[in-house]
Amino acid sequence: MRSAKAIGRTWEDSALVQKTPELQALWEEYKRTSKVDLRNRLVEAYLPLVDYLSERISERLPRCVGLDEVRSAGVLGLLDAVQGFDLSRGIKFETYCSLRVRGSILDELRSRDWAPRLVRNRAQKFGVAVLQLQSKLGRKPTVEEIMNELGLSPEELDQVQNDAARLAIYSLSQSEDSNGDPEAPSRSQYLVDKRHPDPAAELQLQEATGVVLSELEDRERAVLRLYYFEGQTMKEIGLRLQLSESRVCQIHGQAVARIRGELGSRSEDLVS
Fold it and tell me: Architecture of 117-175 per CATH?
């Protein structure tokens, strides 16, 4: 990516060419005929100005907003400027074009913004006030000091802080690599959804449980099935299996202990 200084030099150099009689004749011919090919030649001649303005604006935007997106909006502004420029008014096209290009870029950015402008203005004032207080005090300002500086109540301060937090942009497609390595894994690969169980772990647990249950005796499996899946009491299970209630409790305890022991011995397999 070229620096703003380099692009600025390119624009200054090309501006000398744009004052030639050939360029003036191109303007006059286009305004007389409105031919598309002449318009395209004029747009191409002023593209360095779009490059310069696009990079200047991109420097103040989050990294998730690409320079190409900003430049595309700027080119549309340049196209409108070429079509709407009036030679008879006697003003420099560069001045007129800069306003149209910058306006086109800002309009595009605002159309993508999910936050109202009032919210952004309040968050910006909050950030500026905190920085000024920190510079003045030589330390991080307290909540009371921030409220006094902005003239806010505790409830209003909470709202401003919530608004500022909402405006933070964190791109999951970018990597944590500070060197900008394109091959580095993206942030999304490190996300863990703790609201839902890990499917792989669940499958391993089901497989291990199936193996453990298959090693139980028929009577143990019957007690567990009747108690946990059919909701019968120990007394009802005893009547059905022709066993005493105490014997059913004993079988249930043995089965549960065996399951816990088997699953505990397989815990390393489940984690790996």
Answer: Orthogonal Bundle (1.10)
Q: Taking the model in full, what pTM does it have?
A: 0.45
Q: What is the pLDDT of residues 201-238, one digit of tens each?
A: 676 666 666 666 677 788 888 888 888 878 889 899 99
Alpha helices by DSSP H, 34-92:
36-45, 47-58, 67-84
- In one-letter notation, the amino acid at residue 244 is S
CATH topology of domain 199-271: Arc Repressor Mutant, subunit A (1.10.10)
* Mean pLDDT score across all residues of the chain: 76
Q: CB burial class (10 A; 0-12, 13-18, 19+) of residue 14?
A: middle
Q: What count of Cα atoms within 13 Å lies in the side-chain half-sphere of residue 74?
A: 23
Per-domain residue ranges for the chain? Answer: 4-112, 117-175, 199-271
71 and 51 Cβ atoms separated by less than 8 Å: yes
Six-digit token string for 260: 């816990």
Q: How far apart are CA 58 and CA 114, in angstroms?
A: 19
Taking alpha carbons only, the member of 206, 120, 204, 208 closest to residue 164 is 120
Q: Comparing C-alpha atoms, which of 10, 116, 115 is closest to residue 55?
A: 10
CA max distance for the chain = 111
Q: How far apart are CA 190 and CA 182, in angstroms?
A: 16
Q: Residue 266 burial by CB count (10 A; 0-12/13-18/19+): exposed, middle or buried?
A: middle
- The per-type count for the chain, helices as H runs and strands as E runs, is 14, 0
Name residues whose C-beta falls within 8 Å of residue 54's C-beta, 6 or more positions apart in sequence.
Answer: 67, 70, 71, 74, 105
